[in-house]
Design a protein that fits this description.
The protein is of the alpha/beta class. The protein has 2 domains: 6-200, 2-enoyl-CoA Hydratase, Chain A, domain 1, CATH 3.90.226.10; 204-251, Lyase 2-enoyl-coa Hydratase, Chain  A, domain 2 (Orthogonal Bundle). 48% of the residues lie in helices and 16% in strands. The chain has helices at residues 30-43, 68-72, 76-95, 111-118, 145-153, 155-164, 170-175, 188-200, 204-217, 222-236, 240-251, and strands spanning 6-11, 14-19, 51-56, 61-63, 100-104, 107-109, 121-125, 129-131, 168-169, 181-183. The strands form 2 sheets. A 6-stranded mixed sheet has the order 1-2-3-5-7-10, with helices on both faces. A 4-stranded mixed sheet has the order 4-6-8-9. The chain is globular, with a radius of gyration of 19 Å. It starts with 5 loop residues before the first strand and ends in a 9-residue tail after the last helix. The relative contact order is 0.11.
Length: 260
């Protein structure tokens, strides 16, 4: 069952993970969370995969959040387990040593928006709708939304959206910085793959260190952030890839990076 709820495709260094429960708006039950966790854990040490793309099956929903029908059957201790599971999974996605792109192809509510927030880059279809709507169910975002949203769009706007539970369309999401780009629905995956292909042309170790420096540097003061950046840069200096980049520039050719 766990394998059916998530489609996994690999091509040209890009791993595409498609939430595959379109009949319930790709909502997140335990089986889907566990399937996602297995893939995220497995990809960390694979050199051949450079970028992760996350999207939803069908044309209606990216992810509508928690599977509320499953939630209604759970005793309180299982609800706590669910919250810990989804929170830790989204943190693992955020901290993955490879870029993760969300292709928000439709409705993304509650945990669906939180999944997008855990990704590094978000591209949305013009038909997409996003929102942290949990307060309308008398709960709060529990998979990082109260922390990641204000870091992305600012404290005031995040409080407005969380306190009201209001949904935003793709254009408003773009205007407030919640998504990076808006695309026509039919072009969304192609746009995401084109961006992923550009990332695949860069140095793998450099990307890993840049993501590390950004994620950890933003959580501290500027001086400490600059020190984190310097240490991340030092990691790149002795690599074969750095020398390959210089040689390719000198020889006016495309570099061939190997992640070494």
């Amino acid at each position: 069952m766990g394998e059916d709820v998530l489609r996994v495709e690999e091509a040209e260094g890009i791993l595409t993970l498609t939430l595959n429960r379109p009949e319930v708006m790709n909502s997140l039950n335990f089986a889907l969370l566990h399937a996602l966790r297995r893939e995220i854990e497995a990809v960390r040490f694979r050199r051949d995969l450079r970028v992760i793309l996350v999207t939803g099956a069908g044309d209606k929903a990216f992810c509508s959040g928690a599977d509320l029908k499953e939630r209604a059957t759970l005793p309180p201790e299982k609800v706590r387990e669910y919250i810990f599971t989804i929170r830790d999974l989204f943190t693992a996605i955020e901290q993955l040593n490879k870029p993760v792109i969300a292709a928000v192809n439709g409705v993304a509510l509650g945990g669906g928006t939180e999944l997008a927030l855990a990704c590094d880059i978000r591209l949305a279809a013009s038909t997409a709708t996003l929102g942290l709507t949990e307060t309308r169910l008398a709960i709060i975002p529990g998979a990082g939304g109260t922390q990641r949203l204000p870091r992305l769009v600012g404290r005031g706007k995040a409080k407005e959206l969380i306190f009201t539970g209001r949904r935003v369309d793709a254009e408003e999401a773009l205007a407030i910085g919640l998504v990076n780009r808006v695309c026509e629905p039919a072009a969304l995956l192609a746009e995401c793959r084109a961006m992923a292909a550009m990332i695949c042309e860069t140095g793998p170790i450099a990307i890993e260190q840049a993501k590390y420096a950004i994620n950890h540097g933003l959580e501290t003061d500027l001086a400490t952030g600059l020190a984190i950046e310097s240490n991340a840069y030092w990691v790149c200096i002795p690599t074969e890839d750095r020398l390959e980049g210089l040689a390719a520039f000198r020889e006016k050719r495309k570099p061939v990076y190997k992640g070494r």
